[in-house]
Every structure is written in structure tokens, then in C-alpha cells.
Amino acid sequence: MPKKKILKKKKKSLVTKVATKKLKKKKVFKKLSFLSKLKKTKQKKKKRLNKVGSKKKTQVRKTSVRKTRVKRVPGLGQRLTRAKIILEKEKEEQKELLKKFELHILRGMQDILPEKMRYWDHVIKKLVELSESYGFKKIILPIIERRELFERATGMTTDVVEKQMYQFKDRAGNQVVLRPEFTPGAARAYIEHGMFSLPQPVKLFYFGPLFRYERPQAGRYRQFHQFGLEVIGSEKPVIDAQLILFSQTLFNNLDLKINIQVNSLGCLECRKPYRSKLVNYFKHKKRWLCPDCHRRLIKNPLRILDCQKGSCQKLIQQAPQLVDNLCDDCQDHFVKTLEYLDEANVVYSLNPYLVRGLDYYTRTVFELWPNRSQTDKETNNSFGSQSALGGGGRYDNLIEGLGGRLTPASGLAYGIERIVEELKIQEIRVPKVRPPQIFIAQIGEKASRRALKIFNELRQERFKLAENFAKDSLKAQMEIAHKLGVKLTLIIGQQEALDKTVIIRDMNTGNQEIVDQDKVAKELKKRLK
RNA sequence: GCGGUCAUAGCUCAAUGGUAGAGCACUUCUCUGUGGAAGAAGUGACGAGGGUUCGAUUCCCUCUGAUCGCCCCA
């Protein structure tokens, strides 16, 4: 409080005479407006009081009116200014509180409210069911990992590691990060727990939040959620095909239309010569490339293939393609993968320009794009084509690179937020949470106690119940029961509590029946059949 | 990190250089023990800070946030 006063004094001394006049005027204006407001509210209250019909309440209110009337006679103005001062103080205090606690969710974060949770539960339920039917085992990985893990696995030059990690020192001085992706953690766990001594390949699935510090926009958050699968310990092409088949099945189950994009990046050995070939090609045509691609030419030339700009597109179409430059082994691997896909009736598009952003990918890579050419036009193309719902690929060198044995592996991940968003865009109906069948209404304290007991008994009998014990009036409770769409309502009043009975009301017909409390469960079961 | 658009009640939207309205939602009443209907009333907002002005929610600037695009990714 004293600080405020000092500040105010300082301000006053600084402000010129004109300004003080202004301030005074301001205050006068405020006073006037405040007074008129108070008068208005008082008039309103008067009107209200005159209209109130019920006897008891008017009596109570009348006394309060008398009090105010008596008080109003001496020095109304002073009282009002006092009230005004108190109000202003309260406002200032509230403002200060708000300044102290920035009551606002952090940028890129989100609260997932019950209404949206329906969609989440639906997606995750399908994912877990399918994963388990494919023989994957669930694991939970830590949210915090050492920074070096991602530097070595994801790649030092990738944007994810370079710019987007939430990083800090823990109390022991370790450089740690909030995980920006799952695969390195899974690989770490595989090595650390000696999973190479389990029957190979090891099939794992997981779900959880990931963190990337970037600017949020359509389908992109700083804390987002992925569901992922890893198959560690086999280089067979059938594994890659199986993961892609999994994706097709999943999106079929979710009724989402998607487009599967497939490509092969080759192994480290055949990628090097291709890379220099590509650099050579673009070097001579540098001036037609966009500024971003200039950067990519040095940093990650493969990414140029992914550029969407018209000028670059022309060059890209004539550029040497990865698929033509694979070594024999990689060629063979890719062809076999595609053969498996054809055999399993998977619909996919070959996309020679598909390049995934993380360093560890080798051979097969794929992405799952939403397919909504029709709805896109209707919604004025509000969503870009860049928002992949999921993606994955082979990472044959990652485990070795982290210090494990040479262990080929393949994996994928889906963005939950993006899938949920896509469900809404494609207007897919998600099963609603089963509504309750029975509502328990109570009137009066005694009945309320009895109702709580009955609620618990029926809950143990596995009835789907609803109630609003917080409400006193039966009418209000009936309204809620109606809104919930229950079939039956149990009504317990004083009389029923004494008689140990319950009224069962059929909400469709309006018929009511009085039943002993002991026989309620039986009666309910009969009626719900 | 860069650029465009936007910011009014819990939600969807109005109006205005003289401190703000509606619909839905919520609470209460008409109806102190009975839902679907109707009527009445109530609660509740100009994102934050500064400037211009007698006066700013409105005009200008800064910040914050949202949103879309670029970069990148799920």
C-alpha cells in the first residue's frame, strides 16, 4: 500500500498543471457516471422489489429496503463516494493480482475439454485395439531425456534439435530436454534393457505428449500427442509393408479418407553418391532456386525435392531421382516392399519427392496425408496439403549410432491432434458416451440422505446413473433428467423416505409406480430390458 | 525466426468518439413434490499498457494472445 502512495505522489509531481486539471475533470466525470449508475441500479432494484410476489421473500426484502431508506437520508453523497473508493480499491487489487499471476495458458498449449475428449478416446481406443491385435506391446517412456540423445539420434542439423527443443539444466546440472519425438527414447530403452536378447523383432507401441518450441498454427501445438509403433530387430521388407498396412487398416476403421505416400531414401552408402549428384545438378541452376532452397543446398539438399514453389518445381521434375540411384540391395528391398503392399491390397502412391526431415531415416519412408479433395473445395482450402496425419520409415543405423549393436528397425507415429481435427473436417460421427439410463431425484434433507444411499447401492449393481443432489427443487431435477435423456427417474421425497419406498417414473409415458426400496434393483432391471 | 488478419458476456454475434445490446447457456420466479411449452427477472464482457482528445471499447503505437501462411514438422 505505501508503495502505491509513493508512486502516486511521484506521478503527480511529474504531471503538469494542465494534466492535473485533466485528472480532476476525469474524476468528476467518473463520479457523475458512477452516481448515475448507482441511481439506475437502485431504481431497478425498486422495480424488482415491487414485482416480487411471494410473501416470505418480500417481507425479508422489505425490511432490507426500509433499512436502506432509513440510511439514505443523511449524507447520501458521502456514502456514495466511500462506496466508490472501496470499489476502486477492489478493482486495483484485482488488477494487481492479475499482473502477479498471468492467468493464461502458455502459447501453443491446450486444455482438452470433455467435449473433445470423446474424439480422443475414440481414436486412442482404435489405436490400442489394433496395436494389440498386431502383437505390439505397450511401453511408457520418460518425458525428459538427455539432450545428447536427440543430438545424436535425430540429428544436430535438424530444425527439431537445433531450434525447437524445450531445454534446461536439472538440479544435478544435466542438460535435459522435453522429448521432441519418441523414436530415440524407444531406441535407448531397447539398448538399455537388452531387448536384443528377446525374440526379434521387438514390437512396441506408446502414446504420450511431445514438445516442440515453434510457432503454433493449423494442427500444430507446442505440446502435442503422438501414438507410435516400433519394430526393432528386423530388416525384412515385410515389416515396412506391415506398418503401412496397419496405417491403412487404422484409417479405414476410423472412416477417414487418406492417401499413403511411399518412397525409399536408400541406405547411407547409396545416398552419399546421390546426394553429390543432386548438389551438382542444382549448383548449375542455382539462380532459379528460391532463397530457402539456396540454404537447403548446403544444409540438406534432399529437402529441395520437397519444395512447393513453382520455379523450383520445374527444376525438381528434371532432377535425378532417388529411386533411380538406389544400390542393388536397396532397390531389391524397395521392390519387395511394394510387392507385399500390392499383395495385401494396400492403395498407395509412389512419391519420389517424399523426404522426411529427421536424419536417421533409411530405405522405406512413408507419410499419411488426408484425402479430402472434395471437402477442401467446400471449405475454401482452409487447410494446407502439408499437414500429414502420420508418417514413418526405416531407421537401420540408429541403434548402432547410439552405441548398440547393428540393429535394423522400422517405425511410425500418428499425430493425435491432427487425426481428431481431421475427423471433424471429414464430419465423421464419433460414438457418444453412453447416456445414463436412470436419474435419481430427491426432495428434502431426509430424502437426500436416503437417495445417496440408494445411489451407491444401484451403482454397485452397475446401473448407469445420474443425479444432481445439489439441487433442491424437484422441477429443476426433472429438467436435468429430461435433458440427459434418461428412461427412468427415481423420485424420493419425505414420504417415500419414511415409507422406505421409491417412485419410479417412466419418462416416455409419464406413468409412475411406487416400489419398495428393497425391490428397486429388480424392478429397474425388468424395466430396462 | 519472418509476414498477413483478428481480439466485445461461458458460446455465437451486434452497435457506438459520450463507459455497451441480442440469441443460446446458466440461476431464480410464475408453479414451496414432477421434465418436454410459455412468460418474467437476474448473473455476466470492451485482452494489457501507453498516446491523441474535455471524453477512447471505437483513432494511433507497443505488448500479449488467437488465427492463417513461410520455415519445419505430427
List keywords for this structure.
529 residues, alpha+beta, BirA Bifunctional Protein, domain 2, 8-stranded mixed β-sheet, 5-stranded mixed β-sheet, 50% helix, elongated, disordered N terminus, RNA-binding
Characterise this structure.
- By secondary structure, the protein is α+β, with helices and mostly antiparallel strands.
- It folds into four domains: 2-100, no CATH class; 114-267 and 327-425, Bira Bifunctional Protein, Domain 2 (BirA Bifunctional Protein, domain 2); 268-317, no CATH class; 438-528, 3-Layer(aba) Sandwich (Rossmann fold).
- Helix content is 50%, strand content 16%.
- It has 20 helices and 16 strands.
- Helix 5 packs antiparallel against helix 9 and helix 5 (114-133) packs across helix 16 (416-425).
- The radius of gyration is 34 Å and the shape is elongated.
- The model is unreliable at 1-74 and 374-385 (pLDDT under 50).
- It binds one RNA strand of 74 nucleotides through helix 2, helix 4, helix 7, strand 6 and strand 11.
